[in-house]
Design a protein that fits this description.
Blueprint: H1 3-10, H2 27-41, E1 46-51, E2 58-61, E3 63-65, E4 91-93, H3 98-106, E5 114-117, H4 124-135, E6 140-145, H5 154-174
Parallel strand pairs: 1-6, 2-5
Antiparallel strand pairs: 2-6, 3-4
């Protein structure tokens, strides 16, 4: 069972309505599915989770990138423009300060190491993240997790995801009403 399904079992408490959806590793599906998910659920926050073979920690991605998509997806497709949204900003940052989330979770004694990255890898994870950040005015996050058992179990990762998401929601609550600059200058 994936860490996202384990998180669904754990839940986020009575105050938070958690919806879990699987997004295929396909550029065109991302372009059609994400707008309908945002429209259907009207979420306060969307947190994407992807497995990275290179990750050894739970990695919080700070921003999504618009250009540089050259690898073929699971349907052997790649955007001709090599970008996510023609005319869109090069980079969109999450409204959430990932460094703060990282510090808080790491100091909570959870037993799972968390780090921050500013490059989600210019493949479907980055593409999905950028699309979601664009659609949600920055109210999105992307978390890369290591493969199961390397070194964490699905249960460990679910506990870490739960802690991360709750910290993100807490930060969003604290920052209500503050103006955010989403696009890098």
């Amino acid at each position: 069972m994936s860490s996202s399904q384990e998180l669904k079992k754990l839940g986020l408490g009575d105050e938070v309505n958690l919806c879990v959806a699987e997004v295929p590793v396909e550029y065109q599906t991302v372009q059609s599915l994400l707008p309908s998910l945002w429209k259907q659920h009207l979420p306060q926050l969307v947190v994407h989770v992807g497995v990275s073979g290179m990750a050894t920690t739970v990695t919080l991605e700070q921003c999504g990138h618009n250009q540089g998509y050259m690898r073929l997806d699971n349907c052997r497709f790649c955007p001709e423009s090599r970008c996510c949204m023609e005319g869109g900003p090069d980079c969109i940052r999450s409204v959430i300060d990932m460094d703060t989330v990282c510090k808080r979770v790491n100091s909570s004694g959870l037993g799972v190491s968390v780090s921050v990255s500013k490059d989600a890898g210019r493949y479907l994870c980055d593409y999905t993240y950028y699309t979601s950040l664009f659609l949600g005015d920055g109210r999105s996050a992307f978390v890369h997790v290591p493969p199961l058992g390397k070194p964490y179990s699905a249960e460990d990762l679910a506990r870490a995801l739960r802690a991360v998401v709750l910290e993100m929601l807490e930060l969003m609550e604290q920052n209500k009403g503050k103006k955010h600059c989403l696009h890098d200058q």
